[in-house]
Structures are given as C-alpha cells and as structure tokens.
C-alpha cells in the first residue's frame, strides 16, 4: 500500500480537495465520485460526505493508498 504524507496548511481540508491535491484523483469531480462510490474511508470508517473536514492526525484510505494528514 502506498502511503502519502500531506501537510495541512490550515485547520482542515475538504476530503474531495485532499484527494485531488495528493494526486489520488485527476480532478475534483473524480474525487467526488470516489467518495460517492463508498471506496474512501477516514480513520477506518467509510466516509460518504464529499466535503468532510479532514484535520491533522486523521488517515484517509482507499484502494492501495493511505494518506496521513499532519500539521
């Protein structure tokens, strides 16, 4: 599994923006589709909210990729 470390520059980032900025999805629309399909989890729980606030310390995962968010 590939692990990506993402440094947060504010208090939070929207889930779909995180997927786009880390290169996991090609576009914001593709990121929203991944979330809507139920293949993205946050801290081990499936997340269906496209704009869920992701904060430092959380881990976002989907098939073959894990994103660790830190401040």
Task: Quote the beta fraction.
Answer: 25-35%
- How far is the N terminus from the C terminus? 23 Å
The strand line-up of the biggest sheet is 1-7-6-3-4
Q: How much helicity do the residues have?
A: 10-25%
CATH topology: Structural Genomics Hypothetical 15.5 Kd Protein In mrcA-pckA Intergenic Region, Chain A
Structural class: alpha+beta
pLDDT averaged residue by residue: 96
CATH architecture: Roll
What integer value in Å does the Rg equal? Answer: 11 Å
Following the backbone from N to C, one meets helices and strands in this order, namely EEHHEEEEE
Give the CATH class: Alpha Beta
Instruction: Please give the largest β-sheet.
Output: 5 strands, mixed
List the helices and strands and how they pair.
Blueprint: E1 2-7, E2 13-14, H1 15-21, H2 28-36, E3 41-42, E4 45-46, E5 53-54, E6 59-62, E7 65-70
Parallel strand pairs: 1-7
Antiparallel strand pairs: 2-5, 3-4, 3-6, 6-7
Helix pairs in contact: 1-2
């Amino acid at each position: 599994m590939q692990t990506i470390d993402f440094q947060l520059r504010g208090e939070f980032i929207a889930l779909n923006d995180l997927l786009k900025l880390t290169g996991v999805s090609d576009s914001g629309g593709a990121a929203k589709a991944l979330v809507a399909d139920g293949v993205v989890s946050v801290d081990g729980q499936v997340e269906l909210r496209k704009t869920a606030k992701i904060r430092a310390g959380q881990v976002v995962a989907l098939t073959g990729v894990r994103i660790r968010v830190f401040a």
